[in-house]
User: Fold this.
Amino acid sequence: MENYHKVAEALIKNCLIKVACLKDDPEVILGYAILSKVHPAIHFFFVKIAWRGIGIARSLVPKDTHSATHLTKVGLSIIKKHPGIVFNPFLIP
Assistant:
């Protein structure tokens, strides 16, 4: 992770970070998505296990997303479930 620090910093500076939280208690985070500002691409995505399967992912990821830049477990599952989304690591800022 030490070598990946610069990539993580670039993502934070150059990306849109969307957070899902409880309406009544916004400090309780349910999940998040790190999205490209330039391309319809998703960099990272996470939803807590207890909150999966109820549409939080769909609400965080734009419908026009066509690329995933990381082949994490979640990235692979998104690509498998949505054939219109492809792996493209070259969209990392």
The first strand starts at residue 15 and ends at 21. The chain is about 25% helix and 30% strand.
